[in-house]
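A student in our group prepared the protein record below, which I am reviewing. I have pasted the whole thing underneath without changing anything:
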Amino acid sequence: MSTTLPFEPRTLPAALRRAAERFPRRGVALFDRRGEKAERRTYPELLATARRGAARLYARGVRPRDPVLVCLPTSWEWFETWFGALLVGAWPVAVAPGGALGASEAQVDKVEHLIERLGARLLVASPSFFTDAGRHGASFAPGLAATPEELAATTVSAAAPEPGADLDDVAYLQLTSGSTGFPRGVVVTHRNALHNNWACDVAIGTPRGGPASTWADAMVSWLPLYHDMGLVGCVLLPIFAGWDLWLFSPRSFLARPAVWMRHLGGHGRTITAAPNFGYQLCTERVSAEERAGLELGDFHAAMIGAEMIRPESMADFLTAFAPQGLERAALRPCYGLAEGTLAVTFDLRGEGVRTRRAPAEAGAGEVVCVGRAVEDTEVRIAAPSGEALAEGRVGDVLVRGPGVFGGYFNDPESTAEGLRDGWLATSDLGFLAGGELYITGRTKDLLIVRGQNLMPHELEWVADAVVAGGGSLRSGAFSIARGAHGEEAVLVLETTDREPAALAALEHEVRVRIGRTVGLPLADVAFVPRGKIPKTTSGKVQRQELRRRYLAGELERLPVPPHDPIPGRDDP
């Protein structure tokens, strides 16, 4: 089979070596914290960096098939460690680093869980992470933990051997987002990764008549490297395609989104990727003066994925930046997940964001088309029984193809639940129309309130519109049992406001708006300070954890005066 595959090379280390040989003047640039200055290394220099990392890891006892946790921010140390582990035949695992104030207790718990679950040979993290971990009572076995500084001081006597690998050998482990619990390790083979790179290359380039590798020059990204969209779509894909990569840290983007927008022009024919909230943040936070200095004529493709795509967010983004040369065709919705390596479907028409009204059974209003299945991949919609559903019917989204993983590492039960006769059960709901996929929500988050099926984001989007959050603030919806009343909906909103009277007025407006829009009474509306809604490392609301905290009385609720019931809506 390997002689007939439509892509080269055959392993990820070979892809890095090919980039160094064929594109010696291109490479990776990392921006400083302000996003102003960048340090650049060509692909030959990046290969040398990876080989240096491999030698240091090998000297520390790392061997093929050893899981290596890379708990570092976007940095050259990350590249040296992750690609160094790859070259030595170990299995790198990118883990979210500590936050701005250090490692939280929950994050330390997660890392300890991963060490045990994955049987990690080495954990590489910053000194501050280990300091904070100690404060939270964590201790690591001798030889298990190392800082980049300690690795750099390792005595190296010779280059590390680079073992040969086959397409179906494991390349690395990708962590799931952990939206329903501790993250799991997705086993990604060289075939999974390289086929997905090739399929993305073809899909991005389809509207322009050829693979993107034949015409694009650069990828500009701020996505975190521990996320599948950041790792596969914005690091491995540029190496595969031979593009320049201009890389910001997520913190730099969140602080100054205008800098990211500025670099979408000025590097030739440019590509980027981000979730919905990233584009919304630019709409809200990039000033008119900053917009006036942008040149987006060479900005050819903006992938949109990783979370539900809001039509109004994308319309606002296009309106805001069209005067600077942004074309509607540049907006390219897509759909994917870690268990599919990354991309599953892609907008291949290049006509911008398109929507369709969801079937009544979905209750989702207008939803965005996320395109057709990528090369060699199939998508079907199934009933809970597994029976395939016709186009236009909402059901479980199932995927089959070369990008679909073979299982979760050391987790046969979750693997059996996620893979059904070769089909990946994504836990997403959607429907097909004209062979294109539309996502309506997630099965695990489904709310069934008074006989009405609702997805949490239907309530959250209405609430976001009221508080003018639009991605800057967050809300979370879930249901709770209320005796004879059955399931009732609860909404938790983050806010920077502390004035009780203002919060009472805001609560009333949220209840009224949801009553009018969704026709649903809310059992409770809770306000919490900014940043107090639990989220995954990729920014998704952990609704089940939020529900647990609510029921346990652990939410840091802001006081709100009692309000009068809203007639016809608050009544049981």
Remarks:
- The chain has a mean pLDDT of 89.
